[in-house]
Amino acid sequence: MNAQAQFVALSTIVRKEVRRFTRIWMQTLLPPVITMGLYFIIFGNLIGSRIGQMGGFDYMAFVVPGLIMMSVINNSYSNVVSSFFSAKFTKSIEELQVSPTPSYIIMLGYVSGGALRGLLVGAIVTGVSLFFTDMQIKHVGITMLVVLLTALLFAVAGMINAIFAKSFDDISIIPTFVLTPMTYLGGVFYSISLLPEFWQGVSKLNPILYMVNAFRYGVLGVSDVSIAGSLAGIFVFLCIAVVYCLYLLESGKKLRN
């Protein structure tokens, strides 16, 4: 398969994925924005006014980067896991596998679609947050790099979940029982400096903590963890996830009956 054919295959998959979530935008784009808006009102205005400052900033300004990252993580993951499992369930993915399309093109197409949805929702949530706080980005490069790597990582993770899933119930287990608790305990709503030393150590085992804090550093210039270590960790996790996802696609063990 030459380069031009690969580009056509990739662009077709990406276009299909983008059309999929933009066509039903009232189900894919609007609900997370409304949810984040409620977080801004409840945690930012109502509760935040009683908390005061967190990490040297108003609580609303502190919590906004975490909520943006939460929306990016959830939407990047959910888009790919639902889309790829639907293709697997209807066996249309088998048509792609028997075609000359390389596995990395299939993965890149679905992951790009999921990452684009995550980034789009993140951008909309950022726009909504401007109604509640004056957000000025301190380090644009770090901010863009963190949000891009995070969106790609969770899009790949969603694809891995879809490959292993055997029913529609299986694609909700990880988001409900793993992803949501890790996100809420990942420093979205608080600084881990408030925790006892033991629980600070436990919190540092949560990879989402590093993503949230790296993004918060890019926006506000403050972080509870090392930024260099956070970026390196996100990149390593992404590489591992990509290699494993490619292995699963190449082997086809979880995709063929």
TrEMBL record:
Higher taxonomy: Bacteria, Pseudomonadati, Pseudomonadota, Gammaproteobacteria, Cellvibrionales
GO molecular function ontology, one term from the record: ABC-type transporter activity
Species: Saccharophagus degradans
Record InterPro entries: ABC-2_transport_permease, ABC2_TM, ABC2_TM_bact-type, ABC_2_transport
Organism superkingdom: Bacteria
The protein's name in its UniProt record: Transport permease protein
The family this protein is said to belong to: Belongs to the ABC-2 integral membrane protein family.
Topology of this chain in the membrane: Multi-pass membrane protein
NCBIfam families, alphabetized: PRK15066.1
Keywords: Cell membrane, Membrane, Transmembrane, Transmembrane helix, Transport
GO cellular component: plasma membrane
Residues in ABC transmembrane type-2 domain copies: 23-252
Transmembrane segments: 24-47, 59-77, 104-132, 144-165, 171-195, 229-249
